[in-house]
User: What shape does this take?
Amino acid sequence: MEEKLQQLKERLATIADLLRAGAVLGWDQQTYMPPGGVQARADQISTLQRLAHEYQASEEMGQLLDDLKPYEAQLDYDSDEASLIRFTRREYERETRVPGDLVAETAKTVALATQVWAKARKENDFASFEPLLSRVFELQIRWAECFAPYDNIYDPLIDLYEPGMTYEKVSAVFSGLKPELVALVAALSANQDAVDDRPIHQHWAQDSQLAFGREIAAALGYDFERGRLDLVPHPFTTAFSPDDVRITTRVDENHLASSTMGTIHESGHAMYDQGVSPALYRTGLDTGTSFAIHESQSRLYENIIGRSREFWRCFYPRFQKAVGKGLSKVDMETFYRALNISQPSLIRVEADEVTYGLHIILRFELENDVVNGRVKVTDLPKEWNARMEAYLGITPPNDADGVLQDVHWSFGYVGYFPTYLLGTVFSVQLWQQMLKDHPDIPAQVEAGKFETVLGWLREKIHRHGRKFTMPELAERVVGGPLDWQPYIAYLRAKYGEIYGL
Amino acid sequence: MEEKLQQLKERLATIADLLRAGAVLGWDQQTYMPPGGVQARADQISTLQRLAHEYQASEEMGQLLDDLKPYEAQLDYDSDEASLIRFTRREYERETRVPGDLVAETAKTVALATQVWAKARKENDFASFEPLLSRVFELQIRWAECFAPYDNIYDPLIDLYEPGMTYEKVSAVFSGLKPELVALVAALSANQDAVDDRPIHQHWAQDSQLAFGREIAAALGYDFERGRLDLVPHPFTTAFSPDDVRITTRVDENHLASSTMGTIHESGHAMYDQGVSPALYRTGLDTGTSFAIHESQSRLYENIIGRSREFWRCFYPRFQKAVGKGLSKVDMETFYRALNISQPSLIRVEADEVTYGLHIILRFELENDVVNGRVKVTDLPKEWNARMEAYLGITPPNDADGVLQDVHWSFGYVGYFPTYLLGTVFSVQLWQQMLKDHPDIPAQVEAGKFETVLGWLREKIHRHGRKFTMPELAERVVGGPLDWQPYIAYLRAKYGEIYGL
Assistant: This one.
């Protein structure tokens, strides 16, 4: 059996190397690749992914997993070996359930849809995108049908991005949260004059912004010996192993905080990947376990820590100095309030902590309605705008800033959006558990000390890599499932205070 | 048959993608990879190379090549299809002749040898490297024996780096050249006071050097839309497709020309790769055909053009301006002479045009003597120093600056060195042929116009990619084999004039 396990590990190492190599090529494409490289890069990445898939879905892999069943049954569920076999079996079943022609047609459709979407968004022309978007949803429905039986056809799609989650479980969180968020947004909206964010809209040179971002990331614990920061148009984090995890940022020279907050966000993702146990190296388990858990790390650092008074009490003097005279007469409290302004806005990626959740809930509801045939794709703009008005009190003036704003659906990512909010909700549960274990963490943050935070996350979350799903991690770390109540309480307390409710 | 050819092309595309992906990973490792990335990067590159080898040496590949034999026989030798099959068969035979255990042992040995060599060079301790170097030569001899019969066991090693060449053919060039070079070096050495290179040893800031290098590379015809320039410790050119060919440089802030001349050299390599016919994309033929032909391109641009009066008549005013006051009182002629100083020196990579050849001939002779058992590895330092004295009139004060200076042998590259000089020799033949076709090229260079040069090289050399070997290209382009006489005539004329012989 040891030999079979060894064979499995060797196959997994090959798959890992192929996928990681593809990630390096993707990073290069976003950062340094010259324009001429586009065609060859697409071919190269596609070949690496195809070979990885061939290894993952091969008969030999199925045979090995079958052979290892009795061995697996004797292992401790928490052990690296059992987790490895369990995880690989889940991936194998996903890779082999879907017929090749459906995979091929989806790939072709989304390649076209992404192009058409970009043009449609630019030209504010939903009608030109609608036929392809309908086709994408049809293909995603056919994909989901491969995983019958299920309670809701949306379930397999959600499970793809967030293993262990279902419509019902997500709904339990979002339906509790929604009326509370709508009420809080309305209350803040009624009190807009309480916060002035003009101090944050000032010029600050790119190089100085990047240097400050690097300083903050390093202070939080992001290891630059095992990573680096580069400029890109659309920031992301990518890992080539736990020892080479790279972050990216974009700089708006007329905004003092967007690049810094973005860098903190990506550092949160990156510290997760940097913290996976070396024992999981090259097994496919040596990365973050899911989108929601990843987002819980980035949001915890960006919002709960990075937008806190304690954090800025520590860093504001340095920040003031780095920015220069534009901030010399702005005190920390004024800056803190400007940084935490909350107001309904059209674009998800620019939304603040309070309004963000409603952007997600809207998409979750629409996805569920479309895949269940209750809303037609042609009606999406109308449905979108009605919900924006109902939840946030604003109506998009056009589809470009409404239903066309996100690239996800054109990629075929249906079921992905909920993970953003699930992660954000979980970040508050994690934070509260961390404070129970270490009540002095706010004082540590104010002193610029982040070792306890990172050490706790390493121990509870990071080191496990993909061994456990989000529901399993939640059970282990906070002793229960996702819970929206701490999250809304956190928002109410923080924003109630800022806005004087 | 069309179908078999299509199958072959698909396999070649997969192999090309794997090897090109490996090249991207190698480029990243040299340019931007953080220190922590080393281990995973070695694993990833090794996996990509292993998979490429598995495809190249597979039974299916052998079968396809067999099946295609009758088809190949009907094709025109010069056609893309015939060249593709011919080239692939040569690679297949090389990949399958050598037993796997020899390949594995060589890989292990050179990995260790490279580490030990680096330490030995640093500590000037040949004795510590000698056992591994002996082992490397033994393994290279065993490798060569797989390709029996041959006239000289050195032949298969030479053929690996320069297909179509043998000891006898190389020797025909080098043995004619050697006494002439020795005599020219002695004559110049006796007249050292004729050139003063102090004007070139001045401070010039890195950014300004890089900007000037980019300007020159672009003027020569290197396409930055399909490439880029980055800083590295050991400069190289690498291609991920003909549309993404990257160059690198290092900057010595206390030397005015080393980075610029290096950038011109790498641009010469890169324009070759950028000029391959699109019809050869992803076949494995879409890159330079051999090390010597590659070097003929880089040397033609670096030395024949880049170190000419015509070139600097065009660029010197801009160069003077870019460098600033250090050159304001140095006239072009003084700079031209300083740039072309020739004097015996210890280190090959720092050698000038005249002395360079003797560094290579020395290595060629020693490699031939070692693989034929006439010189023992333990005696290499003694043999090295004796030849340095005989050919260049100087004796290395230590092995670090003598027999230990190059990394090549520790990599197992025996038979590689000759290509540097073969390419340099060929560059002069190319240049003379080009001048026959376009006598006004020197005037064009002086006017900063390089389209005719590049167009001619594209037509005669670049577009063919790997379709033809160097001996084949020489026959097609200059109507005969490599000839050392134009080369020595070029050196004698140029340096005789500079040194007033």
